[in-house]
Design a protein that fits this description.
mainly alpha; 68% helix; globular
């Protein structure tokens, strides 16, 4: 089964997509499969945690993205996630990885663990998860997130490139959570000032936290009126 899926991924890859992914920091072990095709495979394969483990073990970028699409967050044990986080080597896979764990019962534990790491990609994953918690976990009180705003304000300027990006995104996620945290996040963002992130050979931009929070909150308010 795993071999068949890998062969299908290879057949779906294109050189154009490989060029795009390389610009975003993905290494050479990739096929260049579009997200549209990955989505079709996800729909067909459904949740298959055993297959996901094997696809991840292949080391191929596209296979790992697909693995995160079909893995079961409820079956994601701590040892597996700690092993997987060591494999992270570009922000494309970090984003997919963090989104997957954001739906896992281990999201909070891993966020708190990985933000302490000196490794850029592990730290990126940890702070991305803080953002995921702000967006997804309604059970957490405001008091959980307030110390993270203070810590980001204190540590962001000296943090590594992609950690700065994840921290900035966490400020945004916390800021869109509710009115109280919006005010606190905006105040923190003002004190932090412009966040500079090197996005390499891409057209990606670092979002302005204050503007992004305001835009998102306004859009949500409009949806509630509709």
């Amino acid at each position: 089964m795993t071999t068949d899926v890998l062969q299908e991924l290879e057949a779906l890859g294109t050189e154009q997509n490989r060029k795009v992914y390389r610009r975003h920091g993905v290494g050479e072990n990739l096929y260049g499969v579009s997200y549209a095709n990955l989505g079709k495979l996800k729909k067909r394969l459904k949740t298959d945690h055993a297959l996901a483990l094997e696809l991840w073990a292949s080391g191929n970028h596209d296979a790992r993205v697909l693995a995160l699409m079909i893995a079961d967050p409820g079956q994601a044990d701590s040892d597996t996630l700690d092993a997987w986080v060591q494999d992270l080597d570009n922000y494309v896979i970090v984003d997919a990885f963090s989104s997957f764990i954001g739906s896992s019962p281990l999201a909070r534990q891993k966020a708190e663990q990985w933000i302490e790491s000196d490794d850029e990609w592990t730290g990126d994953a940890g702070w991305s998860l803080i953002g995921q918690l702000a967006l997804k976990d309604s059970s957490l009180p405001d008091a959980y997130f307030e110390p993270y705003l203070a810590r980001i304000e204190r540590e962001l300027p000296a943090s590594k490139n992609r950690v700065r990006h994840a921290m900035n995104n966490a400020v945004i996620a916390i800021g869109v959570r509710n009115d109280v945290l919006e005010a606190e996040a905006v105040a923190a963002a003002k004190r932090i000032g412009k966040v500079v992130v090197d996005h390499g050979k891409t057209d990606c931009k670092t979002p302005d936290a204050i503007a992004y929070i305001a835009k998102t909150r306004a859009r949500r308010a409009e949806r509630k009126k509709a």
